[in-house]
Amino acid sequence: MDLAVKAVDKQAIAGAFGRAASRYDTAAKLQQQTGEYLMELSQAENLGIRVLDAGCGTGFFSARWKQQGKQVIALDLASGMLNHAQEQQVADYYLQGDIEHLGLADNSVDICFSNLAVQWCNELPCALQEFHRVTRPGGLILFSTLAQGSLYELEAAWGQVDTYRHINQFLPLQAITDACQLYRHKIISRQYCEYYPQLLPLLNSLKGIGATHLHHGRQHGLMTRKRLNTLAEAYPRDNEDYPLSYQIAFGVIYCDK
Ligand SMILES: C[S@@+](CC[C@H](N)C(=O)[O-])C[C@H]1O[C@@H](n2cnc3c(N)ncnc32)[C@H](O)[C@@H]1O
């Protein structure tokens, strides 16, 4: 197993998400749940109107903010996602860019919102530093990310099929908390579980949200019928269903600059 830590291949991530854009919203049920919860954490009524939706994807939450009367900048690495967002007119401005190098001025937004995107960055502290830089004093940063323990059933099943890494490594909750130490913050951890009647729709759900790109290597082996059956036999079942767990960390950072 290759455990060497390599930099995230952002072009590949943008490609995987871009290809998923047209079917993303129907597959992204988890993202919709976490994003709604993240919005609830905002209590943003008096914070001002400028919102950055960082890693906006199709702009599902850009539109939700806009419905609340906010002026929204939708930003994403993937041009395919951003084009889709722009076609739906979910925001006021569209910016192709990288969360780790935001092309925005210091203190230029009131709220920085980022739902399930920073797990694709090289360094969480770098992403948070950028969020903090562009958010004005008194503003709010809201982010959610996948934490260690996510997709553990699938990882366990693959572990019985071969010795390759098939699942991205997500940061432990403690590392996410540590990355927030520079700022006044709160972290909330929640577990979500999806149940699938068959393994193939479970695997397709990951593909449908562009989450099949591996940070530290490439996919190993074609998914033949035989391999799928072996994986299904090894998969830990809950009654007849195939469960898929996600460990989500929600962060709220108060910009006391
Ligand atoms: C799981 S999707 C979430 C999309 C959206 N926030 C939602 O809630 O539906 C992650 C998004 O983050 C984007 N992304 C990944 N890495 C990024 C980066 N470094 N900078 C900007 N966007 C990034 C991807 O292209 C993708 O659209």
TrEMBL record:
Major enzyme class: transferase
Metabolic or biological pathway, per its Swiss-Prot or TrEMBL entry: Cofactor biosynthesis; biotin biosynthesis
EC number(s) per entry: 2.1.1.197
One BP annotation, GO: biotin biosynthetic process
Domain Methyltransferase type stretches: 52-143
Known catalytic reactions: malonyl-[ACP] + S-adenosyl-L-methionine = malonyl-[ACP] methyl ester + S-adenosyl-L-homocysteine
Keywords linked to the UniProt accession: Biotin biosynthesis, Methyltransferase, S-adenosyl-L-methionine, Transferase
CDD domains: AdoMet_MTases
Database matches in PANTHER family: ARGININE-HYDROXYLASE NDUFAF5, MITOCHONDRIAL
Family (UniProt): Belongs to the methyltransferase superfamily.
Name of this protein: Malonyl-[acyl-carrier protein] O-methyltransferase
Phylogenetic classification of the source organism: Bacteria, Pseudomonadati, Pseudomonadota, Gammaproteobacteria, Enterobacterales
